Amino acid sequence: MITLEPHNIKVQDMMTTDVFSLKKNHTMKQAKEWMKAYSISGMPVIDEDKYLLGIVSIADVLRALELDSMNKSIEDFMSKDVAFVYAQDKAGKALDIFRKYKFGRLPVLDEDNKLVGIMTTSDIANRLANILQISEITVSTEGVQRENVENSHNEDNILTYEIESSNFDKAGLASSSLKKYLQTQNVNSAIIRRAAIAAYEAEMNIVIHANNGKISAEITQDRIKIVAQDYGPGIENINDAMIPGFSTASYEIRQMGFGAGMGLPNIKSSADKFIIESDIGKGTKLEIYIYKG
Amino acid sequence: MKITDLATLLQLELCAGSLAIEKEVNNVYVCDLLSNVMSHAGEDDIWITIQTHQNIVAVASLLNIPAIIIPEGFKPDLEAVKKAETEGIAIFSCDLSAYTLCGKLFQLLNKTGV
Q1: Please, are residues A215 and A199 in contact by the beta-carbon 8 Å criterion?
Q2: Do B51 and A256 touch (CB under 8 A)?
Q3: Which of A42, A93, A225, B6 has its CA 20 to 30 A from that of A117?
Q4: How far is CA A28 from its chain centroid?
Q5: In B, what residues contact A, Cβ < 8 A?
Q6: ipTM value of the model?
Q7: HEC string of A166-194?
Q8: Which residues face B28 on adjacent strands?
Q9: Sign of the dihedral through C-alpha A288, A161, A178, A117
Q10: Could you give the CA distance from residue B1 to residue B3 in angstroms, rounded to a whole number?
Q11: With bands split at pLDDT 50, 70 and 90, how would you rate the model's confidence at A156?
């Protein structure tokens, strides 16, 4: 670890880059649901090019609730006059703003004024613990990257999660996060269960076998589409991999209860439609469709 | 039956998730292979497993399993405890073997037949 002199620490050394942001035409109801699902108290609002437009906080949600305007767009309620810092700013500047204004979070912009991160008071606490060399900091549950990509249809949502290979500590976070989101969307519980099982198995396959990957879930009125893409070694024989009990996992992994050879069969039985493509040496792509009706 | 009542009758040691113990359960699933649990355990089941790492909490949470019992004196890992507290899932440890534990649960939950 590189030791930094406290006065040389920059905002980029302390910020969280996994920012959860909204677009201005999302509704206040959606903002509320995301905040509830992820226990966050405020989110930056950005445009297609990641320019910061404002910030929505719990206070704005309460105001919308009082006015019975939860279906109105975020644009009507967000704070537009937002304090921010640049990634290259010294951390002291952010501390100063936190101290003066008691904000819970500060959006962080790059030199082109695009959103690249967020700095919260807990980031400061974590960093301070690092500097003071306090070990055993609780693993952040914010480890999963969340991104809400704008779609042509306002109700359609795509969630994207980066999956790290061999990281059994974070394994399951993406599928848990997807499940919690689906619960906020009034999806039938049997459908949520199928989506959770499929996403979990796809996530574990990447953790166990691949060299990192990505899971995305696209939720529309009538279906959930989960895509798992990894950059792993590829599957030698897909027919073998589909046989229940067939596994290439190591003894250590099996001892932990993983690698039972039920992953792909479980995905298949949870899905209405399941497409698997694999290239040796390149990676594997799964497309899983679950229809809501 | 309430989880807390089962815990008292079986002398289970609560390791995490005290908020979950008022929930009702009426069935049990036993397995150490996580994929099998994913495909076969039911919602609101109690799950008995010898696995102690934090991924058991992820599996329980995905399936709405309110309580996990770890038999034969094993204890959950610290990370599993922390995660169970966050997710509101109870983890118990007990000295009984999985077999004896299942036998007692079978009786307590009034299961019949064989």
Answers
A1: yes
A2: yes
A3: A225
A4: 20
A5: 32-36, 38-39, 43, 49, 51, 53-59, 61-63, 79, 82, 86-87
A6: 0.79
A7: CCCCCCCHHHHHHHHHHHHCCCCHHHHHH
A8: B46
A9: negative
A10: 6
A11: low
